[in-house]
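Could you show me some protein's one-letter sequence and the numbers that encode its backbone in two labelled lines?

___
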Amino acid sequence: MRANTLIMIILAGVFGVLAVVLINIWLASQRSAMASADGVQEDTVVVAAAGFKFGDTLSADKLREVAWPAGAMPAGAFKTTKELLAGDGSKQALQAIGVNEPILATKITGPGQRATLSAVLGEGLKAVSIRVNDVLGVAGFVFPGDRVDVLLTRTMHNNDGADQSFVDVLLQSVKVLAVDQVADESKDSPTVVKAVTVEVSTKDAQKLTLAAGAGQLSLALRQAAASKGETTERVTLSDLTGEMPADVAKRQAELAKQAAADAAAAADRQRAEDDRKRADDKIAGLAQAVDRVGNKLDDLSKVKPAPAVVSAPEVREVVKEVVKYVTPEPPARATIGVFRGVKLETYDVPRQP
């Protein structure tokens, strides 16, 4: 065997032994790291063995303890089932809790407490209900836990006396606590509701109460991840028609003025017609009265006067008289009297032949 070949065999053996040693060292370090990591999982956390809905009562058969890293415990979590169920009275879920989800103190009530909206409210916040219908309530697609914007629609009189309608965004990113009497966030089927309860501050609660009587409230559903407010502005009728508010007010004033003029003209025509009818009635009454007077005068003109008695002439002288009877001419005009109630009114009218 040549010397070079022997040297190569010896070097290969040395490198092989060195590789085995290095691999054993690396495996040992990995086992130590895994052992130290296993040592961290000393604590446990209580999770839901079955899903919970709003108002469900927590019990030991629906809970279980799982291993959890001690340095990564969620805030408000419970380490043991006994710790979670401690206290006098049962505890209820304040919101939906999924399977294997840690049970947190903020998601359940205290011992003996009921699952009510007052337990869900954040510190310093209030619950206010808004009356809505199938349209204003976003067609029933608003559920507990959603966030909405509250819109206010109002109509006011401007200086010209015309009505001006506009819409303002009253509140933004308001959390919905309940729809009608349902506060379960796991509800997923749309229903037409009559009221929506939202979580707001005290000042916002005052605004909602005042706005309910000042105009019409409606809801606008926000994206689930969109919690920040946005810049808004008032929307008026001019934004719909492209006209300025002054133009809309001027047109409305002109229409109102034209309507008033038409009403006044109609009233004048009606009064003139009533006056004409009354004048016609008076003339007809006077004509009938004149006819009656004329008939009476005709009857009187046909009556002959009685002959006058002539005394005997004296003996001393003879006087011869000729008596001629003349029928008087009827007067050309006649005076008639008309009683109006207790008042006598006289009229000088021409006599008809």
